[in-house]
Amino acid sequence: MDTDPGQDLSSPLPEIPGIVGGSQIFYLVAGRAFESKDIDLFIEDYNPLEVSRIIAETLGLEEERFELFKRGDNIVTHIFIPLPGRHILSIEIMSRTHLGKISGSPLFDEVIVVERDGNRYWALSLEAYAVLTASRPEGWSVIDIERFKDMGENINWDRAESLSRSLSMQDRFRRFREAVEKES
Protein backbone atom coordinates (compact mmCIF):
# COMPACT_ATOMS: atom_id res chain seq x y z
CA MET A 1 0.00 0.00 0.00
CA ASP A 2 1.35 3.42 -0.98
CA THR A 3 -0.35 5.66 1.61
CA ASP A 4 2.44 7.35 3.54
CA PRO A 5 0.68 9.99 5.72
CA GLY A 6 3.57 12.37 5.11
CA GLN A 7 2.98 12.18 1.38
CA ASP A 8 1.71 15.30 -0.38
CA LEU A 9 -1.73 14.49 -1.71
CA SER A 10 -2.38 17.73 -3.54
CA SER A 11 -6.08 17.14 -4.08
CA PRO A 12 -8.59 19.93 -4.54
CA LEU A 13 -9.46 19.55 -0.83
CA PRO A 14 -6.13 18.67 0.83
CA GLU A 15 -7.55 19.30 4.32
CA ILE A 16 -9.91 16.34 3.93
CA PRO A 17 -8.13 12.96 4.15
CA GLY A 18 -10.85 11.07 2.30
CA ILE A 19 -10.65 7.78 0.47
CA VAL A 20 -12.61 7.79 -2.76
CA GLY A 21 -15.14 5.00 -3.04
CA GLY A 22 -18.03 4.20 -5.36
CA SER A 23 -18.01 4.27 -9.13
CA GLN A 24 -15.56 7.21 -9.17
CA ILE A 25 -12.92 4.56 -8.57
CA PHE A 26 -13.35 3.45 -12.20
CA TYR A 27 -12.34 6.92 -13.37
CA LEU A 28 -9.50 7.49 -10.91
CA VAL A 29 -7.91 4.06 -11.34
CA ALA A 30 -8.72 3.19 -14.96
CA GLY A 31 -9.76 6.47 -16.60
CA ARG A 32 -13.32 5.29 -17.32
CA ALA A 33 -16.07 7.66 -16.15
CA PHE A 34 -19.63 6.50 -15.58
CA GLU A 35 -22.64 8.63 -14.71
CA SER A 36 -23.11 8.76 -10.96
CA LYS A 37 -25.64 10.24 -8.57
CA ASP A 38 -22.94 11.39 -6.16
CA ILE A 39 -19.29 11.30 -5.17
CA ASP A 40 -18.50 8.81 -2.39
CA LEU A 41 -15.80 9.45 0.21
CA PHE A 42 -14.81 7.47 3.28
CA ILE A 43 -13.47 9.51 6.20
CA GLU A 44 -13.44 7.54 9.43
CA ASP A 45 -13.18 10.34 11.96
CA TYR A 46 -14.61 13.62 10.73
CA ASN A 47 -16.59 16.63 11.83
CA PRO A 48 -19.43 17.09 9.31
CA LEU A 49 -19.64 20.85 9.95
CA GLU A 50 -15.90 21.29 9.40
CA VAL A 51 -15.94 19.25 6.17
CA SER A 52 -18.91 21.22 4.86
CA ARG A 53 -17.13 24.50 5.70
CA ILE A 54 -13.93 23.42 3.94
CA ILE A 55 -15.83 22.41 0.79
CA ALA A 56 -17.87 25.63 0.79
CA GLU A 57 -14.77 27.80 1.25
CA THR A 58 -12.80 25.90 -1.38
CA LEU A 59 -15.58 26.23 -3.94
CA GLY A 60 -16.51 29.79 -2.97
CA LEU A 61 -20.06 28.87 -1.97
CA GLU A 62 -22.01 31.46 -0.03
CA GLU A 63 -24.35 28.88 1.42
CA GLU A 64 -23.78 25.37 2.75
CA ARG A 65 -26.44 22.70 2.34
CA PHE A 66 -26.03 19.29 3.83
CA GLU A 67 -27.86 16.53 5.64
CA LEU A 68 -26.48 14.31 8.35
CA PHE A 69 -27.74 10.98 9.59
CA LYS A 70 -26.54 7.82 11.31
CA ARG A 71 -26.94 4.21 10.26
CA GLY A 72 -25.82 2.24 13.28
CA ASP A 73 -22.29 3.46 13.96
CA ASN A 74 -21.89 4.90 10.45
CA ILE A 75 -22.08 8.69 10.25
CA VAL A 76 -23.28 9.72 6.77
CA THR A 77 -23.23 13.26 5.45
CA HIS A 78 -24.58 14.46 2.10
CA ILE A 79 -23.21 17.82 1.03
CA PHE A 80 -25.08 19.48 -1.84
CA ILE A 81 -23.20 21.70 -4.27
CA PRO A 82 -25.09 23.82 -6.81
CA LEU A 83 -23.91 23.51 -10.40
CA PRO A 84 -24.80 25.60 -13.47
CA GLY A 85 -28.20 24.90 -15.00
CA ARG A 86 -30.00 24.20 -11.72
CA HIS A 87 -28.13 20.91 -11.22
CA ILE A 88 -26.86 19.68 -7.88
CA LEU A 89 -23.77 17.61 -7.09
CA SER A 90 -23.97 15.50 -3.95
CA ILE A 91 -20.91 14.41 -2.02
CA GLU A 92 -21.66 11.47 0.26
CA ILE A 93 -19.22 11.06 3.14
CA MET A 94 -19.34 7.90 5.23
CA SER A 95 -17.35 7.05 8.32
CA ARG A 96 -17.28 3.35 7.40
CA THR A 97 -18.24 0.87 4.70
CA HIS A 98 -21.08 -1.60 5.21
CA LEU A 99 -18.35 -4.09 6.22
CA GLY A 100 -16.92 -1.75 8.88
CA LYS A 101 -14.04 0.68 9.07
CA ILE A 102 -11.36 0.55 6.41
CA SER A 103 -8.52 0.90 8.93
CA GLY A 104 -7.80 -2.28 10.80
CA SER A 105 -9.38 -4.43 8.09
CA PRO A 106 -8.06 -6.11 4.94
CA LEU A 107 -9.57 -3.17 3.00
CA PHE A 108 -6.78 -0.95 4.35
CA ASP A 109 -4.28 -2.82 2.22
CA GLU A 110 -6.43 -1.94 -0.81
CA VAL A 111 -6.10 1.83 -0.36
CA ILE A 112 -3.97 3.16 -3.21
CA VAL A 113 -2.69 6.55 -4.28
CA VAL A 114 -3.71 7.46 -7.80
CA GLU A 115 -2.92 10.48 -9.92
CA ARG A 116 -5.59 11.81 -12.24
CA ASP A 117 -5.97 15.22 -13.87
CA GLY A 118 -2.90 16.58 -12.08
CA ASN A 119 -4.15 15.65 -8.60
CA ARG A 120 -3.32 12.78 -6.28
CA TYR A 121 -6.06 10.91 -4.45
CA TRP A 122 -6.46 8.04 -2.05
CA ALA A 123 -8.89 5.51 -3.48
CA LEU A 124 -9.91 1.94 -2.93
CA SER A 125 -8.61 -0.51 -5.52
CA LEU A 126 -10.93 -1.85 -8.19
CA GLU A 127 -10.72 -5.21 -6.46
CA ALA A 128 -11.88 -3.73 -3.14
CA TYR A 129 -14.73 -1.96 -4.92
CA ALA A 130 -15.78 -5.25 -6.54
CA VAL A 131 -15.89 -6.95 -3.12
CA LEU A 132 -17.82 -4.06 -1.54
CA THR A 133 -20.30 -4.10 -4.42
CA ALA A 134 -20.72 -7.87 -4.20
CA SER A 135 -21.34 -7.74 -0.46
CA ARG A 136 -23.83 -4.87 -0.33
CA PRO A 137 -26.66 -5.71 2.05
CA GLU A 138 -29.22 -4.57 -0.54
CA GLY A 139 -27.48 -6.59 -3.26
CA TRP A 140 -25.97 -5.42 -6.51
CA SER A 141 -27.79 -3.90 -9.47
CA VAL A 142 -27.93 -4.52 -13.21
CA ILE A 143 -25.91 -1.32 -13.62
CA ASP A 144 -23.23 -2.72 -11.29
CA ILE A 145 -23.00 -5.88 -13.41
CA GLU A 146 -22.75 -3.83 -16.63
CA ARG A 147 -20.02 -1.59 -15.23
CA PHE A 148 -17.92 -4.46 -13.92
CA LYS A 149 -18.42 -6.31 -17.20
CA ASP A 150 -17.05 -3.24 -19.04
CA MET A 151 -14.16 -2.93 -16.58
CA GLY A 152 -13.44 -6.65 -16.17
CA GLU A 153 -10.09 -6.56 -17.94
CA ASN A 154 -8.84 -3.95 -15.44
CA ILE A 155 -9.69 -6.06 -12.40
CA ASN A 156 -7.54 -8.79 -10.92
CA TRP A 157 -10.43 -11.12 -10.10
CA ASP A 158 -8.23 -13.63 -8.25
CA ARG A 159 -6.93 -10.88 -5.95
CA ALA A 160 -10.51 -9.69 -5.39
CA GLU A 161 -11.56 -13.24 -4.53
CA SER A 162 -8.69 -13.50 -2.02
CA LEU A 163 -9.83 -10.22 -0.45
CA SER A 164 -13.40 -11.51 -0.28
CA ARG A 165 -12.17 -14.59 1.61
CA SER A 166 -10.28 -12.43 4.12
CA LEU A 167 -13.54 -10.53 4.74
CA SER A 168 -15.64 -13.74 4.89
CA MET A 169 -17.60 -12.62 1.83
CA GLN A 170 -16.39 -15.28 -0.62
CA ASP A 171 -19.83 -16.78 -1.36
CA ARG A 172 -21.42 -13.43 -2.17
CA PHE A 173 -18.38 -12.42 -4.19
CA ARG A 174 -18.39 -15.68 -6.16
CA ARG A 175 -22.07 -15.16 -7.11
CA PHE A 176 -21.30 -11.57 -8.15
CA ARG A 177 -18.31 -12.64 -10.26
CA GLU A 178 -20.38 -15.37 -11.91
CA ALA A 179 -23.08 -12.80 -12.75
CA VAL A 180 -20.48 -10.49 -14.30
CA GLU A 181 -18.87 -13.31 -16.29
CA LYS A 182 -22.25 -14.69 -17.38
CA GLU A 183 -23.11 -11.34 -18.92
CA SER A 184 -19.72 -11.12 -20.68
What attributes characterize this protein structure?
24% strand; 184 residues; 6 helices; alpha/beta; seven-stranded mixed β-sheet; disordered N terminus
Please outline the helices and strands.
Blueprint: E1 19-21, H1 24-30, E2 39-42, H2 48-59, E3 65-71, E4 74-83, E5 87-94, E6 111-116, E7 119-124, H3 126-134, H4 142-151, H5 157-166, H6 170-183
Parallel strand pairs: 1-7, 2-5
Antiparallel strand pairs: 1-2, 3-4, 4-5, 6-7
Helix pairs in contact: 3-5, 3-6, 4-6, 5-6
Entry summary:
With 184 residues, the chain is of the alpha/beta class.
Write up what this structure looks like.
This protein has 184 residues and is of the alpha/beta class. It has one domain. The protein is globular and about 50 Å long. 34% of the residues lie in helices and 24% in strands. β4 and β5 (87-94) form a beta hairpin. The chain has six helices and seven strands. The chain has a seven-stranded mixed beta sheet with strand order 3-4-5-2-1-7-6. α3 (126-134) packs across α5 (157-166), α3 (126-134) crosses α6 (170-183) and α5 runs antiparallel to α6 (170-183).
